[in-house]
């Protein structure tokens, strides 16, 4: 099967190691990942801003890039949600492109969805001896229904102590048009900055959880 990686703008620009880790994990399970170089933004920023014409242009680029893929996997619930829920809306008045969009929707998965739901993998052999709390993203949990999959994977990590996050169903504050928090603090400072970036209520939630690391 041909599995293609849709890296997304944020992962490609800010966290490229995420894509590298995905490729490494899948290689362990005998899957060689294809990366179409022509892929670009899913169009969500334009769509959310009301620029649907521009969003369609970006979407057509992805339709072309992943035309012959059997599966398309992405590290982002937000971008996957854009494809699965809003591409049909973008092309509702164009039967030809709508059919192509629906085909892409059917084969596009958020990464944990693919690991657990398609490959049937929950134990990655990971070891992480730290106290961790998990914040489910809005689009991943609400649009895609990705809830059990991340927990199934975390439950198999040796040494990991998973503590519940109060108000975990609250938005982190990143909703709407893209917001990027940039800081140059040392590692411990960055953890605190991430808590603050979530909004005051979530900052309190992180403190209550008393976790060393926050996973989103």
Automatic annotation (TrEMBL):
Protein's recorded name: Fe-S oxidoreductase
Pfam families for the chain: CCG
Domain Cysteine-rich: 3-84, 132-180
Signal sequence, renumbered to the chain: none
PANTHER family reported in the protein's UniProt record: LACTATE UTILIZATION PROTEIN A, UNCHARACTERIZED PROTEIN YKGE
InterPro entries, sorted: Cys_rich_dom
Domain of life: Bacteria
Source organism (scientific name): Paenibacillus germinis
């Amino acid at each position: 099967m041909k599995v293609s990686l849709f890296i997304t703008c944020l992962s490609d620009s800010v966290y490229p190691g995420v894509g590298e880790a995905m490729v490494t994990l899948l290689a362990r399970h005998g899957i060689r990942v294809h990366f179409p170089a022509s892929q670009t933004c899913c169009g969500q920023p334009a769509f959310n801003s009301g620029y649907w014409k521009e969003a369609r242009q970006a979407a057509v680029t992805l339709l072309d890039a992943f035309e012959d893929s059997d599966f398309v996997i992405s590290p982002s619930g937000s971008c996957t949600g854009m494809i699965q829920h809003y591409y049909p809306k973008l092309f509702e008045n164009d039967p030809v492109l709508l059919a192509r969009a629906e085909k892409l929707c059917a084969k596009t998965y958020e990464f944990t969805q693919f690991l657990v739901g398609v490959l049937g993998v929950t134990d990655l052999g990971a070891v992480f001896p730290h106290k961790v709390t998990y914040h489910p993203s809005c689009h991943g949990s609400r649009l895609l229904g990705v809830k059990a999959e991340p927990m199934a994977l975390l439950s198999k990590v040796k040494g990991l102590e998973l503590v519940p996050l109060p108000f975990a169903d609250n938005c982190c504050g990143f909703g709407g048009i893209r917001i990027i928090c940039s800081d140059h603090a040392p590692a411990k400072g960055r953890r605190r900055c991430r808590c603050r970036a979530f909004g005051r209520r979530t900052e309190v939630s992180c403190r209550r959880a008393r976790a060393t690391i926050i996973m989103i």
